[in-house]
Structure formats: structure tokens, C-alpha cells
């Protein structure tokens, strides 16, 4: 134990009464360092046995002074602490004659250091933690000890100014951590959605447009829509997800192809110019489809291109569910007596799609569900049957010819039931 020579100014050759305040000068404002405490006791007093780990109980805070019951075995004294920026004033009711601190004060303050490193004495300032604890004692642990009397009951969590678990950190430190998230406001009230645009006879092949939706208060439903193509501008880029960026790019690529292609899959242009672009187009849809499954998707009917300059119209729009099962295309031939009828039999996981099915280019709709066809050949066959009014009727006298010219080629690729 380092016993130091008394510093000038504290030195007092005559003994003092421990009940009077003894002033310990602090090297740093409100900080009691271990060396400072150890140089505040005379050699003789420091060698006194006992008073190890005294029980400490906060009694009161009056006239800027904290009173702490300081007990060991069956003996108790009251320790008084008074704090100023560069001073700690200490007294003990034992009334012993000492040069500096009495053993009771010294051991109690040692305990404070034991729990608190260089002890932060601000707790014992007027309006500090000690006073708060006394004014609100039912919210704090009643066990004795320096550590315990600043210990709030579990239900209080951390108590501001008293039991902060992250002392030394400011909230700014935590908030300065990297956060590549979009600004909160935009996440909360806006959401990207995607709209599959389908047309009547004069329009284009189906294409996909991004659109910025305005969310309801709960943030779970889009209640309004921005213009078509809203959400792709630079200002929104920061909060788009990687998938949304990919989708926006796919929208553009789909548009570039759709713009130059005829609006039908079975078209004379295909005979002369080939189907490369059409294959690319279907491939883009296959890239977009799995990404779209995680976004709100709508189908929008349009009949005039200038509609695309405005906002989506709720009248022509339907929320749809994308399904990742690919329809299996088969055909069914039914004998109706005077004639036979050939119909399309699209199956999903082995079951026929029956309800309100609509065939449209690359897609089959069933109520609010949409399926993407696997191949251009499937799409061409679906379109063939759609143009045929849904079924082909063959009278008996024509059947042999139909079988040779139509069914035989068809059966090379498709199952006929
Ligand atoms: Zn004492």
C-alpha cells in the first residue's frame, strides 16, 4: 500500500476530530482517484484492523450533504459526503482523533472505488443520483452497498442519469453507425408496385410498368398511385431494393422489345423475321416473374396509348397474385355425336384450371391468379385456341382430314386426351 507524504495544504500536524469535515482535494473535477484516497489517511490509522466491506445505506440528502449509514459487524457510524468540483468533504460520527480520514470513512470510500473505478462523485451532488434515489426510493433496490443503492428495480429498465448501461457513449455514437436504409418517411408512406399492361386489339403485347404507390396509414395497403413510371427517377433510387432496381431495368427492356414487335404471337412477321425478339421477350418475363412475386402487382387494361401518360385508373386495374407453377398445356377431344370438339386443357400441378380462365399472350389468368407460360410454343398454341373462340369443332366427314393436318402434328408435342 503506497503511503505518501502528505501534500502541502492538507497537512495538519495536530490531530483532528473525525466528526469534522476533512477536505480531500481532487485532481480532476468530481473524480476521486485511488492514489488520492490512499494519500488521505495517516500510517497509523491505515494499519487499524477490521471494517472490511462495510454495509452502506443511503440515509438522507440535506444541505448539499449525503448521509450514509456505515456499518460493520454490530457497529454503525454515519458517513457524510459533500462534493464540490475539486473537493470532497468527508466526516464520520465516530469522533476518533485522526490526522486525516478515519478508518471507517476510508474503507467506505475504498468500497466506492472498488465498484466505481475512479469514483465519479457527481452522484453525491445536489440534484444528483443520491438525491433522486432518496426521493424515489420505492423504485430502487433496498439492499445495502454503494452499488445497490443506485440500482433500480428490474421493471424500471435503465434510469436516466443513474444506471445507464452504456456510460461513456452518447446516443450520437450509436446513431452515427452506418445505415444504408432509405429515409424513414419514404419507406413509410410510399411503396413500389408493378403493373402488367394489357390491351385490346390495337395495343401492344403485354408489358410491365413500375409505379409509385401511396400507402395507407397502416402501411399495408396501397391507396393511391403516382403516374406510370413514377419511382424510377434518381430521387427514389436510394430507397429502392436491389430487386426493384432489377425489375425497373427489366421493365425498360421489355418495353423496348414490345414497342417494335407486332401485337400478336402468331403473325406473318414471325415467318419472315424469326422469333428471336419474341423469345427474348418471354425470357425477360421469366426473369421478372420470380422478383414480381415479392412486390404488389396489378393488371391494368388500356385501350389508348395516351392513357399511359397519366396515372393508373382503378376502374381498369386489378390486383393479381403471381403463381410460380407453370401451366402444362394439353388438349382434350370430346365426341359430341354429330361432331367432335378440340379444347385446350391447361393443368396446374395436374389439375385443370377451370374457373374464369382467361388466356392472354404469355399468361393464363384464373380469377386473381396469373400463371406464366413456359414456352413460346405454348403461348402460340394458347393464342391459336383463343383465336378459334376457345374450341375447334370438327364434323364427322372432316375428321380424317383434320386428324392428318392438325392432330398428328399437334400430338408430336402435346398430349391429347
Ligand atoms: Zn470514523
List its traits.
disordered N terminus, five-stranded antiparallel beta sheet, alpha+beta, binds zinc ion, five-stranded mixed beta sheet, 417 residues
How does this structure look, described?
This protein is α+β, with helices and mostly antiparallel strands and 417 residues long. The chain folds into 3 domains: 16-156, no CATH class; 184-319, no CATH class; 323-417, no CATH class. It has 12 helices and 22 strands. Helix 8 packs antiparallel against helix 10. The longest helix is centred in the middle third of the chain and has 19 residues, at 242-260. The site of zinc ion has 8 residues, from helix 3.
Mean pLDDT: 85
Shape: rod-shaped
In angstroms, what separates the terminal alpha carbons?
100 Å
Structural class, from helix and strand content? alpha+beta
Write down the domain tally.
Answer: 3
Q: Give the low-confidence spans.
A: 1-11
- Ligand names: zinc ion
Can you count the helices? 12
Largest sheet: 5 strands, antiparallel
Cα-atom radius of gyration: 42 Å
Task: Give the strand content.
Answer: 25-35%
Major sheet strand order: 2-7-6-5-4
Proportion in helices: 25-40%
Instruction: Count the E strands.
Output: 22
List the helices and strands and how they pair.
Blueprint: E1 16-17, E2 22-25, E3 31-32, H1 34-38, H2 43-46, E4 55-62, E5 65-72, E6 75-84, E7 87-92, E8 97-98, H3 103-116, E9 119-120, H4 129-135, H5 171-175, H6 184-189, E10 190-199, E11 207-215, E12 222-228, H7 234-237, H8 242-260, H9 268-273, H10 276-292, E13 297-302, E14 317-319, E15 321-323, E16 328-335, E17 339-348, E18 351-352, E19 357-360, E20 363-366, E21 369-372, H11 376-387, E22 391-395, H12 399-411
Parallel strand pairs: 10-13, 15-21
Antiparallel strand pairs: 1-8, 2-7, 3-9, 4-5, 5-6, 6-7, 10-11, 11-12, 13-14, 16-17, 17-18, 17-22, 19-20, 20-21
The structure holds zinc ion (ZN).
